[in-house]
Model the fold of this input.
Amino acid sequence: MESIVLKDSTGNSVARILPGFGFNLYSLEICGQEILWSASEFHRGTARASGSGIPILYPFPGRLPGKTLRWKGREYEMDCDDGAGNAIHGFVLDRKWRVVDQQESKVTGEFHASIDAPELLTQWPGDFRIQCQYELHSKGLSATYTLDNPGEKSLPCGLGTHPYFRVPVGGEMVDDCILKVPVQRHWVLEEMLTTGEQRDANPVFADGVPLDGLVLDDVFSGVVFDAGIAVSAIEDPNSGQRLTFQWDEACRCCVVYIPPHREAICIEPYSLVPGGYAFDPSAEDGGLMVLEPGERTQHCMGIELDDRRE
Done:
């Protein structure tokens, strides 16, 4: 598949994106070092769309119970499937996006349901449009996601991203790396669906926990923001390098996942609690957005690599 290649003005950062496969940014090199993990065949568009790079999850991230969404007295049958009979990760992560602006270090892609996949209008309560802009700088990348409702009906939605950060970060031992995620609460799951119950999260996630023996596919909330920004990190004590991933208050919960191959760790900001809880009419803290016709919202995130020995 055709890739878009971005380079920043200093030559320190290079990114590669597949507009024909979910506008996935599947490679990010900073000072010659690959930051993201992708399957070897991902650039051909043949690997699992949610398993590499930075998948974009919209109009809902995570799972919904079953494949039927019930909204305002109507039912919508969805064709995405997690293999266990649940809809998962929305509709845009494996479809073709249009490039609406491209420069040397910056690119913007767009997916508009009624234009790019009209069949989706029977699977979701309203038309939806999302734009993603990636921009490189000398130490990393910034991204802005713009969501708007171009239709004539209210649009329930949620956004998530699913970056696969390569570990170790410049060193040789995955298990020595330290994960830091600023979260305070942990959601109880049953068969990978949220129950609505929350518990206090282990404080080691905020203070830093070694990856040695750590197994995670968990939903967290109570994200701590400083001046409107949450900062997570993967630190490699052997290389002295620190990968930071930060996002704004549009995403107040996150999923942390360590794939079985243990060559990556996923820190996934979500605007809503996955697992269907946010779509429950009784849920007051699920984070579901309902955009009215013409309404727009944004989410921003950033990735940087620092050498702490400097």
Notes: The chain has a mean pLDDT of 95.
